[in-house]
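Question: Send over one sample?
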Amino acid sequence: MTNKELADLMYPNVNKTVEDYEKLYPKRDLKQGAIVTRFAPSPTGFVHMGSLCSAFIGRKVANDTDGIYYLRIEDTDQKRSVENGIQGIIDDLNNFDINIDEGFVSQTEEIGNYGPYLQTNRLEIYHTYAKYLVENDMAYPCFCSSEELDEIRKEQEKKKDRLGYYGKYAKDRNLTNEKRVELIKEGKPYVLRLKSTGDFNKKIVVNDLVRGKIEFPENDIDHVLIKSDGVPVYHFAHVVDDHLMKTTHVLRGEEWLSSTPLHIELFKKFNFDIPKYAHLGLVMKVDENGSRRKLSKRKDPEAAVSYYHEQGIPVEAVKLYLMTIANSNFESWYDANKDKSIDDFKFDFKKISESGTLFDLDKLLNISRNYISRLKASEVYNQTLEYAKEYDQEFYHLLIKYKDYSIAIFNIEREQKKPRKDYERFGNIKDEVWYMYDELFDMDNLKYDWMKITDRNEIANILNIYINEYYDETDSKDEWFEKIKQLTNRLGYAANMKDYKENPDDFKGNVTDISTVIRVALTSKAQTPDLYMLLKLIGKERILKRFNKFIK
């Protein structure tokens, strides 16, 4: 019984050859050095922040080299797939401007000449390559039951041997083809296993783009390639896919490092070109006890990329942060090139941290704050409006009703050398400006932060004199502040801070205390943007209404 006869029995429906598929998937017509890489998730739910970082890097390196970035869905584990999982992945990528050149563009639609891009639609291809391995004595059917495999594991544990199906423990490796045919015809379930030719005592060297040269023992385990239901395992499917889709670079998490010898052996079995590997460190988080752990879908809300939309953190700020944690030299480059974008920066694999990335939400929010501070007021308005439309209908309608007024609010202390940085995300802008809208300014239910001057009569006196005798909407800022100082002196407070510091007992307080009373009566808050601009925007009629709350 020949290997070909065995292969024909195992895969009777395969009517193409490996050579046929090599012709169907020709070499890509790209310039030298162009990187072809992929994002290859399982449709098991939302995109994790670690996956988003990998996807972002993949898109960036393909862009930098005029290469190809494609989306392949690895759905061979159907038990873990969720309804509309593909669309969820596509939406998450689109929401962060990570566009693909090939692969899935919707739950049911794909583009590109190297598909199908869904692994369960490629079973005929995998079976063709599996048949090739059987024909060439590089794979064999294994009939071991789960009980037999458990016994092998127990024996290995007892003898303190390495675990796995290899060497003398590979019970079905040396069955005759006649015996294999007999068992298949009897209907006994089987899997397809690799017939490894590796030697665990020998080393292979992998030139990892992130970690440099790494030595591994050769793979000698006869791993399962095709399960008993005919569906391939990840190890086998991705090797066939990456070859046919002409992937030049494989970017993946460091948890796949130990599998690299197996993957390299499979590439060599087929005489495929071996892609370059970049094993990326995990995205980590510091726990309350100070220890580091992997960012968790279950424990950490910020692990889900949907979190950033719900919080109103700008997409561009997230991208800036991702680049900061992806390449250690990006932050200094960006600080020196304020007029340039991420697209102008050249990604360097050698600048990726080997030890993983510590996810710092505070740093991301600081980047977000800086980013928003550089936007024009109209851009802040448009993006806040977009956010509010989905997450805060009350604020959305106010923004629509008072468009020009809202833009003017967002422009306070913006067009200057050092703009204010109150807004860390679009989701907290309402919390920063609510007092500017009468519909949100419920004077009967506010807590006023009066600071130093708390006597109600003194407050009423300050407000009454100021609004009736000093405030003029036509005043310039200098004229306005001069009148504040005049009021300060008149009421027994120090208009000059130097005088107050030298002789504090000679005064009831200082000019800051007077302006604070005006500020708090106007907004309820002791800390706000420029008081002069707030007064100008609110207008005298509305100022009187708020001040009269205390005067009366």
The chain has four domains: 3-15+123-280, 286-373, 376-436, 443-551. The two ends are 106 Å apart (CA to CA).
